[in-house]
Amino acid sequence: MSLFKRIFSSEKKETLDKGLEKSKDTFFSKLSKAVAGKSKVDDDVLDNLEEVLVTSDVGVNTTLKVIERIEARVAKDKYVGTAELNQILREEIAGLLSETNSGNETEFSVPTDKKPYVLMVVGVNGVGKTTTIGKLAYQFKKQGKKVVLGAADTFRAAAIDQLQIWADRVDVPIVKQSMGSDPASVAFDTLKSAVTQDADVVIIDTAGRLHNKVNLMNELSKVKRVMQKVVGDAPHDVMLVLDGSTGQNAFEQAKQFTKATEVTSLAVTKLDGTAKGGVVIGISDQFQIPVKYIGVGEGIDDLQVFNKFEFVDSFFK
Q: What are the residue boundaries of the SRP54-type proteins GTP-binding domain, all occurrences included (predicted)?
């Protein structure tokens, strides 16, 4: 189908295919058992397919939507063979993802009418938040953008150190204070510095949880308010980083963070080490928040712009 024509470069596509290999192999192993001995997509096959999707971490609500779409196709086409099921799945899931993701992006970019473009990154410890920030800084710098990092996760000494390592590796400036400093103060200083330096992109790291009694929602709201004293409409994007390998736990994290702050985009990491890649489909659909980036390997180039057609093509290849 022309819908799934090659968009990525062959090298990028190969990385995506490899990164989703475990998820794909596990899914197809389950799918082949679900349709064994069947030639037609009937109620039994749909029941089995429902179980396959749920156990592949697509999530119950999204699975029901996919099954409904396939039921409608079967009713319309009168006869659908199990041999066609994979193609139908690809088309219906791509259609579902289209409702949340524009899906045309292939390169790292930021709007040119926002300068500096302020990206605030949220997520719990251990999901790959700092690594994602470092890889984003690398990609933006590679495009000739001037990037400044802000170490506003001040409740964990390791977070400041890790961000410093990435700043050194990518060779971009970082604004930081000592551990325990006010995160809003760091964010304020970072934006002031970025404006002075005429930076294009600012990426602010924030705490995933707080070691004192301050409510996370209040803390993130304060960081936003203080940033707006420097850049009136900051932040332009609040990106939640989720660890794809945690499957259903990632849904729970998304639920908590979307309650705590207005999340406008998602990055799903660690998809290469897991069979739970279906979580990208479920989270994107359930929270109606676009997935911007996915992590499909440990290399500095292995953070990719999420493209729904390429993702679905690799997942159901």
A: 290-303
CA atoms within 13 A on the CB side of 207: 26
Write the DSSP string, 34-93: HTTT-SB--HHHHHHHHHHHHHTT--HHHHHHHHHHHHHHHHHHS--BGGGHHHHHHHHH
Q: Is 130 annotated as a binding residue?
A: yes
C-alpha separations of 236 from 90, 95, 117, 185, 230 in Å: 32, 27, 6, 19, 13
Measured distance CA(294)–CA(16) in Å, rounded: 9
Weakest mean pLDDT among 8-22, 45-59, 221-235: 8-22
Give the dihedral sign, CA 185/191/197/202.
Answer: positive
272 is in an annotated binding site: yes
The pLDDT of residue 39 is 86
The single-letter code of the amino acid at 34 is: A
* Three-class SS state of 188: helix
